[in-house]
Design brief:
This protein has two domains: 290 residues, Aminopeptidase; 110 residues, Alpha-Beta Plaits (2-Layer Sandwich). By secondary structure, it is an alpha+beta fold. A hairpin with a 5-residue loop joins strand 1 and strand 2. The protein starts with a helix and ends with a helix. The protein is built from ten helices and 17 strands. The chain binds zinc ion (ZN). Its EC number is 3.4.11.4. It is an enzyme of class 3 (hydrolase).
Length: 407
């Protein structure tokens, strides 16, 4: 099977994750896919193949040299986004893309157009795998799986490329934030790993937000409005006062790059009680802590104004910037950089404005930056992946394996 054949086979499995199921994997289709992959890895002659009851599939490509080398891993996720159906995916390859509109679905007039998605023009002359406009494609992250499996096959077929022990891991439920959750880092047994789960060619990510969630409950005092003078406290107004005390420009719609924010995500109120929810994000740990302190400070201020117990704050850390875990092992970034260059890919380092499984894995003791898998427009009907991007990603994996042995 070629890389493309493998990818087309993988997207035929419906592995859409479900946030509400409460089990792992969150949908049975992911286990069906995992079992298929397990058989494929067995047929390819990989070793130490295990599939646990939660749908985590691990395998080994043994070292082909006696030189003592670190064990490295490559990871991708089997599920697709809950945002759009991944059932009956019917992909099509647009060969030698001419830079014009691509009609995905004639009956509903769904068009993948460079006027909306200018990135398409970066892939003129390449072969694009697109959807039929009715489902997502699933390049996120089946492109990653196809690239990893194909790279292992390539290494097996090219024994002249010396490499250490390589572990591969395919996990469920990344799209619902639970991919790292039941990932047995000890059993995986790697010194470090890379998730193949980024987008455009060259992407290399090892920084993400520090993240916390805040919930503030404001208590009011309800009195008949006719008799309310100097008695009523309207919790909605108190909440509003609190909201306006936070810097209004430090919000997602006004920030980019390394700028952090307070994001007001919910408000639910009556005179008697109002609940306000925020998420707090910052790449910088010191500024992140300062943002939390600022929330505490403003809650104290409200209580000074309206009386103790008017506002209560619940703060909960959600995840941290993996950079903290990567910095002591910066050579793993250098290797990824060098591998990209060797594969003819210009590295593009980008700070993730969100979290990743890799961040959670990094804090579980497995440093785990993220590398491009080549797909674009994830989570919807306009998703596509250039074949040439997948080939580059596969090449990067092969080069990383070779470079680790060569240092
Ligand atoms: Zn993904």
């Amino acid at each position: 099977m070629t890389l493309v054949e493998r990818f087309l086979k993988y997207v035929s499995f419906d592995t859409q994750a479900n946030e509400d199921s409460g089990v792992t994997p969150s949908t049975p289709g992911q286990m069906v896919f995992a079992k298929y992959l397990k058989e494929e890895l067995e047929a390819l002659g990989l070793e130490e193949i295990t599939l646990d009851e939660n749908g985590y599939l691990f395998a080994t490509l043994p070292a082909n040299t006696d030189k003592p080398l670190p064990v490295i891993g490559f990871i991708a996720h089997m599920d697709t986004s809950p945002d759009m159906s991944g059932k009956d995916v019917s992909p099509r390859i647009v060969e030698n893309y001419d830079g014009k509109d691509i009609l995905l679905c004639a009956e509903q007039n769904i068009v993948l157009s460079p006027s909306q998605f200018p990135e398409l023009l970066d892939h003129k002359g390449e072969d694009l795998i697109v959807t039929n406009g009715k489902t997502l494609l699933g390049a996120d992250d089946k492109a990653g799986i196809a690239e990893i499996v194909s790279a292992m096959v390539y290494l097996k077929e090219h024994p002249e490329i010396k490499h250490g022990k390589i572990r591969i891991g395919f996990n469920p439920d990344e799209e619902i934030g639970l991919g790292a959750h039941k990932f047995d880092v000890e059993k995986f047994g790697c010194d470090w790993a890379y998730t193949m789960d980024g987008g455009e060619v060259g992407e290399l990510e090892f920084e993400n937000f520090n993240a916390a969630a805040a919930k503030i409950v404001f208590k009011g005092r309800n009195v008949h409005p006719g008799y309310a003078k100097n008695k009523m406290i309207n919790s909605i107004r108190v909440a509003n006062r609190f909201i306006t005390m936070l810097p209004t420009h430090e919000a997602p719609e006004h920030t980019e790059g390394y700028e952090g924010f307070y994001h007001l995500i919910g408000i639910n109120g009556e005179v008697e009680q109002t609940t306000v929810s925020y998420i707090i994000r910052d790449h910088n740990r010191t500024r992140f802590e300062a943002r939390k302190k600022e929330m505490e400070h403003l809650v104290r201020k409200i209580n000074d104004e309206y009386g103790l117990g008017t506002a209560t704050l619940e703060l909960r850390d959600q995840y941290y910037n993996m950079r903290e875990q990567i910095e002591p092992v910066m050579h793993i970034i250098d290797i990824a950089f060098a591998a990209m260059k060797a594969a003819g890919v210009e590295p593009r380092v980008k700070a993730i404005r969100g979290g990743t499984d890799g961040a959670q894995l990094s804090f579980k003791g497995l440093p785990c930056p993220n590398i491009f898998a080549g797909g674009l427009n994830f989570h919807g009907r306009y998703e596509f992946v250039p074949v040439q991007s997948m080939e580059k990603a596969m090449n990067v994996i092969v080069k990383i394996a070779a470079l680790v042995a060569d240092r």
